[in-house]
Amino acid sequence: MTDTAAPRAIPRKRSKRARPKPDAWAWAGIVIVILGVVLALIGPLIAPYNVGQIVGDVFDSPNDQSLLGTDVLGRDILTRLLYGAQLTVGVALAATVLGFLLGMAIGFSAAEIRGRYDDFVTWLLDVFLSFPPILLALIVIAALSSDLWVLICTIAVIHASRVGRVGRAVAMNIAALEFVEVARARGEKLTSILVREIWPSTIRPLAVEFGLRLTYSILFLSSLSFLGLGIQPPDADWGSMVRENLNALQRGAYIAVLAPAFSIAILTVGVNLIVDWLGSQSGRSISKELTG
C-alpha cells in the first residue's frame, strides 16, 4: 500500500525587494506632517494663553506679549493657531481613518462576494457620488448641527463612497489571483480572505488614496469652517480663523489672515509631497506586487 498524503497549501511568498528610500521632497513632506501632528498633540500645552482670552487691542501688531499679533477680538493669534492645529489635524485625521475603514470594508466585500451584493453596493456608491460633497455636508450639518462628531461622520461618509469605489477596483484584480483562489479552496472565511489575503496586496495603492483623502479632509473642514458651518466659537480651527479675520486685510494686519491660511497650505503641501512619492513608488511596483 502506498500512503497518499494530502497536499499541503504552499504559502504565498512575498518578494524581498529593497524598499526605496524617500527623496528630498518626500522627506520635506514627512517633516511637515510630523510637525503638524506634534503641534496638534502638544499645541494647547505650549500655547501662551487660553484660546478665547483677550490679550490686547483689535489687530495689534506683533509684540512681546503677542508674537504674531492679535485678531478681530484682541485674542492672541499664535495661541489660536496652536489650538486650531489640534482641531484641524485631529478632525481631518479622524474623519479620514473612519471613512477609509468604512470604504475599504464596503469595497473589499463587494469585490469578494460579487453578485447582487456587488450590484447593490455599486449602485449605492454611485448614488453618494452623484451628490456634490459640499451640498451633502451642508444638508447634514444644517439638520444635525455642527457638533464635532457630526463633522467627523459627515466627512467620513463622503470619503467612504470614494474609497469604496477605489478599494473595490483594486480588490477585484487581486481577488482573481491564484493565492486568493487557494484561500477560498481551503474554506477560509470572508473576513480572513479580506484581511489576510487581499488587504496586504492593496497597501501601496490605498496608501496613496489615504493621503489624498487626508488632504481633502483638511481642505473640506477648512471650507466648512470658512462658511461658518465647521468648528464653532470659541473653539478655533484654521479655516474659521481666516473667516473671522477677513477685515484685517482692510486694516493692513495681513498676518491675522495669512498665518492660518499659510498653515492650511503648508500642511496640505506636505501631505501631497508624501502622496507624490508613494504614488511614484506604487506605480513602479504594483504590477510586481500583483504577480510576485
Summarize this structure briefly.
The protein has one domain (32-291): MetI-like (MetI-like fold), CATH 1.10.3720.
Question: Could you characterize the architecture of this molecule?
Answer:
With 292 residues, the chain is an all-alpha fold. It has one domain (32-291): MetI-like fold (Orthogonal Bundle), CATH 1.10.3720. 69% of the residues lie in helices and 0% in strands. The chain is built from ten helices and no strands. It has helices spanning 24-46, 77-113, 115-130, 133-144, 148-175, 178-185, 190-198, 203-226, 238-244, 255-291. Helix 5 packs antiparallel against helix 8. The radius of gyration is 24 Å and the shape is elongated. The two termini are 39 Å apart. The relative contact order is 0.15. Mean pLDDT is 83; it is low at 1-7, 9-16 and 284-292.
Which descriptors would you attach to this protein?
disordered C terminus, MetI-like fold, 292 residues, mainly alpha, 10 helices
The largest pleated sheet is described as: none
Q: Give me the number of helical elements.
A: 10
Mean pLDDT: 83
Which value, in Å, is the CA radius of gyration? 24 Å
Q: Termini, distance in Å?
A: 39 Å
Low-pLDDT parts are 1-7, 9-16, 284-292
- Subunit arrangement of the protein: single chain
Q: Globular, elongated, flat, extended or rod-shaped: what is the shape?
A: elongated
H/E series = HHHHHHHHHH
In total, the number of strands is: 0
- CATH architecture classification name: Orthogonal Bundle
